[in-house]
Amino acid sequence: MGKLYIIATPIGNLEDITLRALRIFKEVDLILCEDTRETRKLLARYEIKMPTLSYHQHSKLQKIEQIIELLRNGKNLALVSDAGTPGISDPGGKLVDEVLRTFGEEAEIIPIPGPTALAAAASVSGFPTDKFLFLGFPPHKKGRNKFFKKIADSEVTAIFYESTYRILKSLDELKSAVGEREIVVCRELTKMFEHFYRGKIDEVIKKLKDDDTRGEFVVVVRKNNN
Ligand code: SAM
After folding, report:
1. Three-state SS string across 85-114, please?
2. Which of 23, 32, 64, 102 is the most buried (most CB within 10 A)?
3. Which of 134, 217, 219, 220 to mutate to test the pocket of ligand 1 (most atoms within 8 A of CB)?
């Protein structure tokens, strides 16, 4: 069977791509993308002209079967998501699971490491990150209380993702669940409007309201000191 490379791509700044990732892009037969338009921007920047195929969370079984067939026929494939490391709060894991189910021990699934927003945020938080709890996105409806309760109870730094639409709502709910706690909100990491909001939750909410809540966010919460 062919190899399946799981390739991390930039979370904003297109310079954040590894030399190995660029080499593999040129060597594989096909690049599987969450959104081919997003990935083409990256490929165009490095003048890489390789065929792409869309693969996302709503892809039909037929698409997965097509991909499995390509691997069976010895084709080498690369899987990328829109940003960061495939499988970290985005599609990717599902395909890896399917490939493992089909080929078992024969499967050659190779990670090409690189950026992920959670690691970038952890690295500048200043909070202890020898251990941390990563929770992905808060659920939209059911399970929100439980999500924030987990952070309240956490004995290690907690990290979660949030979008422009829900950041203030989530910070309000975080405050209700954890009370006074130090946080860092990282907005638009590696991008033009990169900004870090640090302080107690109320202070950060105020700074964000006074500034701008557009963009992508990672929230890092210092552990409970009790
Ligand atoms: N696979 C990605 C990774 O490795 O980080 C995460 C994909 S998830 C669908 C997208 C979320 O990641 C955004 O809503 C945001 O919370 C976070 N994120 C991604 N890029 C970011 C950036 N440049 N700045 C801040 N947060 C970012």
Report:
1. CCCCCCCCHHHHHHHHHHHHHHCEEEEECC
2. 32
3. 217
